[in-house]
Amino acid sequence: MRERVKAIYIDTVRADLFNPYLPDIGRVSPLLQSAIGRALIFGHPSAEKERLLNRIKVGDPENFEAGLSLLKDDEALFARTGYCRARGPWLSDIDAIAVPLPLPGRMSPVAINCSVAMSAPHVARLVEAVDALKDTARQIGDACSRARPERL
User: Fold this and answer.
1) Which is more confident, 59 or 113?
2) Are 35 and 84 in contact (CB under 8 A)?
3) Half-sphere exposure of residue 84, counting CA atoms within 13 Å on the CB side?
4) CA distance 21 to 142
5) Hey, is 83 helix, strand or coil?
6) What are the sequence ranges of the domains in the chain?
7) pLDDT for 31-46, tens place per residue?
8) How far, CA to CA in Å, does 67 sit from each of 25, 28, 61?
């Protein structure tokens, strides 16, 4: 989920022994430079997205321009496929995909991701996980939509 202008992990599952990036609960990632961060940005409605980008620009101007170009590159991929992808530069040996969860409007955007080391023998199969990742996001979103508001 988003915490100010960073992504923060609220849960994690480790299944890839080749992956040197094993984020734990509470781990922070930059929004513009990571797939999970960009998925969080795309999970916001347009007006909120613009406010968020302005906060990043003010709070981290030196990384904003480079990050904005990554966001623009991912924008076309996200519009076409519904997922974000990052291969470096923030984590140079990590290939990651991420999707925002379709949550009810009253909830803050959250996202899920999957990452593998680019040196892993199965890195080429990461994109094969996109449909499963999107399906998982839909299932979680559906469960949240059915939940009573006091339980959220």
Assistant:
1) 113
2) yes
3) 28
4) 29
5) coil
6) 2-151
7) 999 999 999 999 998 8
8) 24, 16, 10
